[in-house]
Structure formats: structure tokens, C-alpha cells
């Protein structure tokens, strides 16, 4: 029996290492509930019930909620959607002559990148409460693949000053590729080049995305460009 102990210990260690290195898998889920407003929520959720999966899912849900113009005291996504619907029902009751068109809220995510260190989800939100047009935006959620916590720009990028110079070069290059008549002066409302609020990972490199109104007029829509990994690798803390 004594001779079996080293072998058993080896199996336990091997199984532990295998479990730790196993990547998180995701499934697509949706909120299945009937509303009077047009509301949909289709998003990625980490599979399983491990501590890591639960942390990831909590982080994702908080990020989804943050994209909606809703009171901060709401903690659960379904409550946020229900509140949006309740606001619409109340609006129809108070202003029946202005109850059309129907309010809309649509949330959707896409996993754009996953490695042993980082997972990136793109969260797209469209919100319409009447008027000339709705409000849509995309945010990148960068997750620490080992802890499930949200990573901010300082967590993923070092030497911000030099990185900003690199980003400006690629921004200008992207403009010239799209339209040789476009100039950087047409953006940033007369201010110097600024990094976007949203930076995330993709299979092609680091994506920098400016939402509508962030650097240009509504008509110009989203502005995004990619810095290939071979150019940005030295600035990345995780990849």
C-alpha cells in the first residue's frame, strides 16, 4: 500500500493542474420574458458553477447594467429590463397621444477574444425612447481570465504616453486607408488626439473604438481601428 501513495499524489497533482488550465467555456443565454416595450437581452455567460464562472458572470451582468440609463440601485439585469418596461407603460398612460413608436432596449454581447490571460466581450446596447433616433453604443469588457475581474486600461496597457503616440499613428493610417480626404482635424472637435474609452482585444490585435459623439458627429457613427499584435505587443501587460 505504501508504494501506491506517490502514484496517487501524482494523479491528484496532475488532475489539479489540468483543472486549473482548462479554459472557461461560454454559452449564449437570453432573457425570456414578455414586455410591452421591445426588449431583448442576448449575452454570453460562463458555463458551470465554479467560483471563477460565478465571478465572470457577476462582472458581465454589472457591465450589461452599466450600459443602460437606469437608476444605480438596480443590481439584477431582469430588474433593469422590467424597470425600462414599467417606465414605458407609465409613459403610455400619462401621454397616450405620444406612446408611439414603441420604446426599445436591445442588449447583445459577442466574445471577440480569449486567451489564458484575458477574455474580451463586446457589449452592444441600443436604447430608444422616442425622438429622432435611438442611442446605441458598444463597450469592451476585458476580463482577467484567471480571476474573472474587470480589467481597465491601466491593467492591460503600460507606458500610456508612448502607447498613445503609437495609437495616433495607426489612427491616421486607418483614416488614410478609408478615405484619403479624411484628416485627423475632422475629429476630436478641434482637440488633440485622445485615446478612446473603449479598448479591447480581437484575434487581429488591439481594437480602439470611439462611440457615436465621442470624437465626431452622429452622422459619422462609430470610429474604430486595430493595432496589430506585432506592433502593440511590447505595450501589453496581458495578452
Total domain units: 2
Kindly provide the radius of gyration, computed on alpha-carbon positions and rounded to a whole number of angstroms. 22 Å
Portion of residues in beta strands equals 25-35%
What is the fold named in CATH at topology level of the largest domain?
Answer: Heat Shock Protein 90
Assembly form of the protein: single chain
Widest sheet, order of strands:
1-2-3-4-5-6
Give a verbal description of the structure.
By secondary structure, the chain is of the alpha+beta class. The chain folds into two domains: 23-151, Fervidobacterium nodosum Rt17-B1 like (Heat Shock Protein 90); 155-235, Actin, Chain A, domain 4, CATH 3.90.640.20. The chain is 33% helix and 27% strand. It has helices spanning 4-21, 51-66, 77-94, 153-156, 160-178, 229-232, and strands at 26-30, 38-46, 104-114, 118-128, 135-144, 150-151, 198-202, 205-210, 223-228. Strands 1-2-3-4-5-6 form a six-stranded mixed beta sheet. The radius of gyration is 22 Å and the shape is flat. The chain starts with a helix and ends in a 7-residue tail after the last helix.
Q: What would a concise description of this structure say?
A:
Helices cover 33% and strands 27% of the residues. It is built from 6 helices and 9 strands, in the order αββααββββααβββα.
Amino acid at each position: 500500500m505504501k508504494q501506491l501513495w506517490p502514484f496517487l499524489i501524482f494523479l491528484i497533482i496532475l488532475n489539479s493542474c489540468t483543472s486549473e488550465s482548462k479554459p472557461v467555456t461560454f454559452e449564449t443565454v437570453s432573457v425570456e420574458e414578455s414586455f410591452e416595450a421591445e426588449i431583448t437581452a442576448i449575452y454570453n455567460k460562463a458555463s458551470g458553477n465554479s467560483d471563477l464562472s460565478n465571478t465572470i458572470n457577476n462582472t458581465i451582468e454589472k457591465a450589461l447594467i452599466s450600459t443602460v440609463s437606469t437608476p444605480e440601485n438596480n443590481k439584477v439585469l431582469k430588474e433593469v429590463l422590467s424597470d425600462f418596461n414599467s417606465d414605458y407603460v407609465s409613459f403610455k398612460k400619462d401621454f397616450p397621444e405620444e406612446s408611439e413608436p414603441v420604446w426599445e432596449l436591445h442588449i447583445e454581447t459577442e466574445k471577440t477574444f480569449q486567451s489564458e490571460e484575458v477574455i474580451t466581450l463586446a457589449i452592444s446596447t441600443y436604447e430608444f425612447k422616442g425622438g429622432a433616433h435611438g442611442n446605441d453604443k458598444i463597450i469592451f469588457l476585458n476580463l482577467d481570465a484567471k480571476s474573472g475581474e474587470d480589467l481597465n486600461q491601466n491593467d492591460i496597457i503600460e507606458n500610456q504616453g508612448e502607447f498613445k503616440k503609437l495609437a495616433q499613428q495607426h489612427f491616421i493610417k486607418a483614416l488614410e486607408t478609408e478615405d484619403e480626404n479624411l484628416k485627423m482635424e475632422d475629429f476630436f472637435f478641434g482637440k488633440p488626439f485622445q485615446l478612446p474609452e473603449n479598448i479591447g482585444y480581437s484575434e487581429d490585435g488591439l481594437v480602439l473604438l470611439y462611440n457615436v459623439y465621442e470624437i465626431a458627429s452622429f452622422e459619422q457613427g462609430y470610429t474604430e481601428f486595430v493595432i496589430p499584435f506585432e506592433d502593440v505587443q511590447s505595450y501589453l501587460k496581458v495578452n
